[in-house]
Write a structure and sequence with these properties.
Elements: H1 2-15, H2 27-38, H3 41-45, H4 47-53, H5 60-85, H6 91-96, H7 101-117, H8 119-131, H9 153-166, H10 180-197, H11 201-211, H12 214-227, H13 232-240, H14 250-263, H15 270-275, H16 284-317, H17 329-341, H18 346-379, H19 381-384, H20 389-407, H21 413-424, H22 427-458, H23 464-487, E1 493-494, E2 498-499, H24 502-516, H25 518-529, H26 534-541, H27 552-567, H28 572-575
Antiparallel strand pairs: 1-2
Helix pairs in contact: 2-11, 2-16, 2-18, 4-16, 5-14, 5-16, 5-22, 5-23, 7-18, 7-20, 7-21, 7-22, 7-24, 7-25, 8-10, 8-18, 9-17, 10-18, 10-20, 12-16, 12-18, 13-16, 14-22, 14-23, 17-18, 18-20, 21-24, 22-23, 22-24
C-alpha cells in the first residue's frame, strides 16, 4: 500500500514538473514559420495598390530606402534579440533593460487587438470557400436572391459582399444582430488556429511546411492566368509606370514607411518569439536577410498577378483602372473572385484561391497568437510550463478573442473592424514602438554590445551599416514619419464616405493609445518604485540582467579578473610559521 502511494505521488510530481521551453527541430521550420508570419494578406492586397497609387515604379525608391534603413535593421534586431535572450516579447526587454519592459507590454497589447480582428478575414474566406463548392459560382451570375438586378459583374460582386456576406447596416450606431453563418466560419478559423499551435513549436514547425509553401503555388497559377487575359498589359503599365513627381508628396514616403512595418510584422513581438526558439548558434543574421528579400520579392511579384487582373477588368468594362483598383479586403473578395470565375473549372480554382487566402492569413494569425502565449508563459514559467497548462492558456486566449471577434460579425461590425484596422495596429503605433526599440538597444544597452552578442552567436560581426541604422537612421526616420502622421492625421471614413460619430473616433484613439501609453506608464512606475536617487534608479533600471549569456570576450575578461585576483592573494607558505607549513587545513 505504501509503495502504491509513493508511486502515485511520484506520478503527480512528474506531471507537475516544469517542462522545458523547447526549440525548433530544424532551421527550415524557423524559416518557414517566419516566412508564413511576414508573407501574408498585406503582400497581396496592400503593396501593389500603394505602388500604383504612389507613382508606380517610382514608389520603389522610398520603399527600398525604408527597407534598408528601417525594415531590415529592425527585423534583425528583434530576431537576434529573441535568439540571444531565449525569451518572449516581454521578458526579453526586462532582461535587456527593466526600464524598457513597457515596450513588451505595448507590443503585446497590439498583438492582442490584432488577434481579435485579423482572423475576421479568414472567416470571410471560409464563407466564400463554402460557396465555391458548386458548379456555378454564386458570384459568377446575377440570379441569386440576395442580389439587386445589376448586370455588371464588378458591381454585382460588390453587392454580394455587402448584402449577403456583411449584411452591412447604415452605421456603427446600428449594430444589429450577429451573422451566425459568419460566426460559425470564425469558430472554424479559431479551431484551426488553436490546433496549429497547441503543442507549441512542435506542432507549428510541422504545419508551416504546407501552409507557408502552398500559397506560392497558387500565386504562380494566378500570375500565369492573369498575364494571359486581355488588358493585362494595361494593368501592369499602371502598376509600374513611374511618376517621379509623386516623390515630392510626403504622403508617398509615409505610405512606404508604414508598409514596411506592416508587411514585416515589426514591433509585434512575433519575430522575437519565433527567434527565441532558435539554437543559440543559429545564423539568424543570414536568415533575416534572406527572409527580407523573399518578403519584398513576393510583394513585387504579387503586383503583377493583381494588376493584370485589374487591367482585364478595366478593359472589359471600358473604364479607367482607377475605378476598379482597390486596396484591402475589397481587392481579395471582389477583384480576385471575378478573375477566378473566368478560369476553366472555376469552382476548383475558386476553392484553391480561397484556401490560399486562408493559409496566408492563418500563418500570420497563429504566429501572433503564439507570440502572445509565449510572452505570458515566459513571464510565469512556474505556472504555465506544466502539463496541459499552456494548452489551457491558449484556449482562454482563443476563446476571449473569438468573443471580441463576434462584435465585428454583427451587421454594423464592419465599422468596428475598420476602427481596429485603422487605429489598433496603425503605422503610428508601430513607429512609436520602433523608436523606443532602437533607442533601447543602440543607446541604452549599446549597439556595440549587441553586436558582440550577435558575433558570439553567429561567429562573425555583421557589417556596420545595421549598427549605424540602429543608432541614427532608424530612430530619425521613425520619429520623422511618426510626427508627419500626427500632423497629417485624417479621421477614418468607411469607403471614403461614412463619417463615424465622435464616440467612434474616441474608441479608435483609445485603441491606439492603449499600446503607446504602456511605455511611459511603465517607466514612471519603475522609477517611482525603485529606491535611491534619480541617477541611481536609472543605473539600476538600465542595467542588463546578470543571467544573460556571456560572450567569449566577457568570459575571458572575467577569467582574467579572477586570475589576477587569485594571484594577488598570498600563499599559505608565505604567511605561516615554519612549524605550521606542513599542516593540512
Amino acid at each position: 500500500m505504501k509503495d502504491i502511494t509513493e508511486s502515485q505521488e511520484s506520478g503527480q510530481e512528474s506531471d507537475e514538473k516544469i517542462q522545458e521551453r523547447g526549440q525548433w527541430s530544424s532551421k527550415l521550420e524557423f524559416v518557414l514559420s517566419v516566412a508564413g508570419s511576414i508573407i501574408g494578406l498585406g503582400n497581396m492586397w496592400r503593396f501593389p495598390y500603394l505602388c500604383y497609387k504612389n507613382g508606380g515604379g517610382a514608389f520603389l525608391i522610398p520603399y527600398l530606402i525604408f527597407l534598408f534603413t528601417c525594415g531590415i535593421p529592425t527585423f534583425v534586431l528583434e530576431t537576434a534579440l529573441g535568439q540571444y535572450t531565449s525569451e518572449g516579447g516581454i521578458t526579453c526587454w526586462r532582461k535587456i533593460s527593466p526600464l524598457f519592459e513597457g515596450l513588451g507590454y505595448g507590443t503585446q497589447v497590439i498583438v492582442s487587438l490584432l488577434n481579435c480582428y485579423y482572423i475576421i478575414v479568414l472567416a470571410w474566406a471560409i464563407f466564400y470557400l463554402y460557396y465555391s463548392f458548386s458548379w456555378d459560382l454564386p458570384w459568377s451570375s446575377c440570379c441569386n436572391s440576395w442580389n439587386l438586378e445589376v448586370q455588371t459583374h464588378y458591381v454585382y460582386l460588390i453587392r454580394v459582399n455587402r448584402r449577403r456576406v456583411l449584411r452591412l447596416s447604415p452605421g456603427i450606431d446600428q449594430m444589429g444582430s450577429v451573422n451566425w453563418d459568419l460566426a460559425l466560419c470564425l469558430l472554424i478559423a479559431w479551431i484551426m488556429c488553436y490546433f496549429c499551435i497547441w503543442k507549441g513549436v512542435k506542432s507549428t514547425g510541422k504545419v508551416v511546411y504546407f501552409t507557408a509553401t502552398f500559397p506560392y503555388l497558387m500565386l504562380l497559377v494566378l500570375l500565369i492566368r492573369g498575364l494571359t487575359l486581355p488588358g493585362a498589359v494595361r494593368g501592369i503599365q499602371f502598376y509600374l509606370y513611374p511618376d517621379v513627381g509623386r516623390l515630392a508628396d510626403p504622403q508617398v514616403w509615409m505610405d512606404a514607411g508604414t508598409q514596411i512595418f506592416f508587411s514585416y510584422a515589426l514591433c509585434l513581438g512575433s519575430l522575437t518569439a519565433l527567434g527565441s526558439y532558435n539554437k543559440y548558434n543559429n545564423n539568424c543574421y543570414r536568415d533575416c536577410l534572406a527572409l527580407c528579400f523573399l518578403n519584398s520579392g513576393t510583394s513585387f511579384v504579387a503586383g503583377f498577378a493583381i494588376f493584370s487582373i485589374l487591367g482585364f477588368m478595366s478593359y472589359e468594362q471600358n473604364v479607367p483602372i482607377s475605378e476598379v483598383a482597390e486596396s484591402g479586403p475589397g481587392l481579395a473578395f471582389i477583384a480576385y473572385p471575378r478573375a477566378v470565375s473566368m478560369m476553366p473549372f472555376s469552382p476548383l480554382w475558386a476553392c484553391f484561391f480561397f484556401i490560399m487566402i486562408i493559409f496566408l492569413g492563418l500563418d500570420s494569425q497563429f504566429v501572433c497568437v503564439e507570440s502572445l502565449v509565449t510572452a505570458i508563459v515566459d513571464m510565469y514559467p512556474a505556472v504555465f510550463r506544466r502539463k496541459n497548462r499552456r494548452e489551457l492558456l491558449l484556449f482562454v486566449v482563443s476563446f476571449l478573442s473569438f468573443l471580441v471577434g463576434l462584435i465585428m460579425l454583427m451587421e454594423g461590425g464592419m465599422y468596428v473592424f475598420q476602427l481596429f484596422d485603422y487605429y489598433a495596429a496603425s503605422g503610428m503605433c508601430l513607429l512609436f514602438m520602433a523608436i523606443f526599440e532602437t533607442v533601447c538597444i543602440a543607446w541604452v544597452y549599446g549597439a556595440d554590445h549587441f553586436y558582440d552578442n550577435i558575433e558570439d552567436m553567429i561567429g562573425y560581426r555583421p557589417g556596420p551599416l545595421i549598427k549605424y541604422c540602429w543608432k541614427f537612421f532608424t530612430p530619425f526616420t521613425c520619429i520623422s514619419t511618426f510626427a508627419f502622421s500626427l500632423v497629417k492625421y485624417t479621421p477614418l471614413r468607411y469607403n471614403s464616405v461614412y463619417v463615424y460619430p465622435w464616440w467612434g473616433y474616441a474608441v479608435g484613439w483609445l485603441l491606439a493609445l492603449s499600446s503607446m501609453l504602456c511605455i511611459p506608464s511603465w517607466m514612471i512606475f519603475k522609477i517611482a518604485s525603485t529606491k535611491g536617487t534619480l541617477i541611481e534608479r536609472l543605473k539600476i533600471l538600465t542595467k542588463p540582467s546578470s543571467d544573460l549569456p556571456k560572450t567569449k570576450k566577457e568570459e575571458e575578461r572575467l577569467l582574467a579578473i579572477f586570475t589576477v585576483g587569485n594571484s594577488a592573494l598570498p600563499h599559505k607558505d608565505d604567511i605561516l610559521p615554519e612549524h605550521l607549513k606542513d599542516t593540512k587545513f
